[in-house]
Amino acid sequence: MRSAASVIALVVLASVLQGAFAANSLPDKFYGKWILDHSENFEEYLVAKDYGWFMRKMILLASVTKVFEKGTQPNTFRFKNLTSKKDTDYDNISMGEKFEAEGLDSTQHIVTFEYIPSSGTVTESHLKVGDAPDTTDTYEYTVDGDFLVMKMTWKGVSCKRFYKKE
């Protein structure tokens, strides 16, 4: 009796630990190089963010590539945002852990990546250092076939950007 209960307890513990580890690591389907293919409602999103006409056009014309790679430290990943204007490169990211890094706007951000297993979504949150928490930008990533789909919402305006796997 005692041995069967011990085995059941170990199986339950292993399942819980596996679920916790899965929520703390980047799923394999996200790894790779993703090149911007097309967008839906992106200019409207930029209007909601109060970008002027000229800046919106510059952003719309920029080439963008997202890269997810294994980190240089165990159990971490690396995320690169490559654009025709500026690149960011964050290494040794652990899910759920905040870190400070330079954003595409050349200011310091508090950045957090999280994985939500129930929806298969990775979120990337950015809060400019010194700004109020209600100004946090959150980007939601899902994989749909050969596309990395990035969803963004600001003041009720949502857009999607579709990146094709290279």
TrEMBL record:
A GO molecular-function descriptor: lipid binding
InterPro entries to which the protein is assigned, alphabetical: Calycin, Fatty_acid-bd, Lbp1-4
Keyword Transmembrane helix attached: no
Xref: Gene3D superfamilies: 2.40.128.20
Endpoints of the signal sequence: 1-22
UniProt keywords, alphabetically: Lipid-binding, Signal, Transport
The protein, known as: Cytosolic fatty-acid binding proteins domain-containing protein
Similarity section: Belongs to the calycin superfamily. Fatty-acid binding protein (FABP) family.
